[in-house]
Amino acid sequence: MTENVDVLLIGGGIMSATLGTLLKDLQPDLKIAVLERLSDVAQESSNAWNNAGTGHAALCELNYTPESKDGTIDPAKAVAINEQFQQSRQLWASLVAEGVLDEPSTFINATPHMTFVRGEKDVAFLRKRYEVLKQQPLFAGIEYSEDSRVINQWAPLLMQKRRKGEPFAATRVPAGTDVDFGSLTRQLFANLREKGVEVATNHDVKKLKKKKDGTWEVSYRHVIGGTPGSINAKFVFVGAGGWALKLLQRSGIPEIKGYGVFPIGGQWLKTSHPDIVAKHRAKVYSQASVGAPPMSVPHLDTRVIDGESSLLFGPFATFSPKFLKNGSMLDIVTQVRPHNIGPMLKVAVDNPSLIKYLVSELLKTHSKKVDSLRDFMPTAKDEDWELLDAGQRAQVMKRDKDKGGVLQFGTEVVTSADHSIAGLLGASPGASTAVSIMLGLIKTCFPERMADWEPRLRDLIPSYGETLNTNPAAARKELDATAHALAINP
């Protein structure tokens, strides 16, 4: 491998691919290298079968619009996530136009986003949520119905053999998408290779050491044969999914103190039965079970992967001490440090409902999982669905001055004080908001270059530095432009 680089990306997922793409575009003479421990890129969380591919824009996910104690609904988080996803859409559209990415259908397809609820309480909540969101420019076009005939037109599998008299309601946004993040990641890395970026697979990072000159010596071992090596980098990004915590701990930066992660695995029910798949073209989310983490909100999804359509339902939580699907059984133990054991124990004490939920999920048989699907799809048959393992999610546990320790759902960038190393912790909605997250990282870690880079960033991402939701005309213009460029007009 090249001995000295400007930027080293650890991990071959969507985060590293996005950061590498942006940096190489902004400054083509940067020497960039990538180290990935598996035999190919996009094999962990970015793999299409390991995530929901929802293109999270808060169109259907209820956890982004919580109801406060006084009964009001604050749309701020939903709007913020939608703004972030629009930046991803804009960058992808620019990269398609410039030939960096292939035809849009190879990684993104129009798929309506729906929310479906049952019972008077949840129907009242969804109606209230709709009234709030329809006033937001980025949610223009959201539809609401309690009419079984209308919902049957939107998603027939939800309504077949539904009990009479049962209260239900649904919202629908025709402009939703399904994203194959595996294909997207592979295409971005292919382009980086063409631009001279060395992407080294089967390279397992073992040590990160800060040198006196401020650069990082990163030691690795080749997975096949065990040959050791090292590379020096001025800046290091750790985009290694669940292993980001372990690598940041090895770096010795004080900013990682107090952090731990709690691994949660998952399984999907999957069908490729053509008659079933043909009757459902949507991503349909509902309310989470009591104690369930937001990433476990049940949903029945259309997926388009490598041009093939299928349906997924889930996820069903599983437990493994591994931080990655291809991780180590000792991961959950080897993360423990004197500085994070307190926050982690506090999280365990404060989240009994999560533990109860995980135990109940682990006890579910295949038949019981199909019973859960029947809440969505009353006509589901056991024999039509198979179980498929999803990816591991490493949820952030961190020190909290008031509570001692908290379990955080979402993503967080940890950066050293001198901005020479940064890493991403956490899970959903990471992939969908990768562009926004990496833009924030670039601004933090390369502040002296932003004045030169910002004009090009505005070319790639027209809404860069602005908020679309406060400008209805601009929001409509950008939504229409990216929908046309990515061929995702509903």
Automatic annotation (TrEMBL):
InterPro entries: FAD/NAD-bd_sf (IPR036188), MQO (IPR006231). It holds the Pfam family Mqo. Keywords: FAD, Flavoprotein, Oxidoreductase, Tricarboxylic acid cycle. Its cofactor is FAD. It comes from the Bacteria. Transmembrane segments: none annotated. It comes from Microbacterium testaceum (Aureobacterium testaceum). It catalyses: (S)-malate + a quinone = a quinol + oxaloacetate. Its EC number is 1.1.5.4. It is an enzyme of class 1 (oxidoreductase). The lineage of its organism: Bacteria, Bacillati, Actinomycetota, Actinomycetes, Micrococcales. This is Probable malate:quinone oxidoreductase. Pathway: Carbohydrate metabolism; tricarboxylic acid cycle; oxaloacetate from (S)-malate (quinone route): step 1/1. NCBIfam families: mal_quin_oxido (TIGR01320), PRK05257.1-1 (NF003603), PRK05257.1-4 (NF003605), PRK05257.2-1 (NF003606), PRK05257.2-5 (NF003609), PRK05257.3-1 (NF003610), PRK05257.3-2 (NF003611), PRK13339.1 (NF009875). Belongs to the MQO family. One of its GO terms (biological process) is tricarboxylic acid cycle. GO terms for molecular function: (S)-2-hydroxyglutarate dehydrogenase activity; L-malate dehydrogenase (quinone) activity.
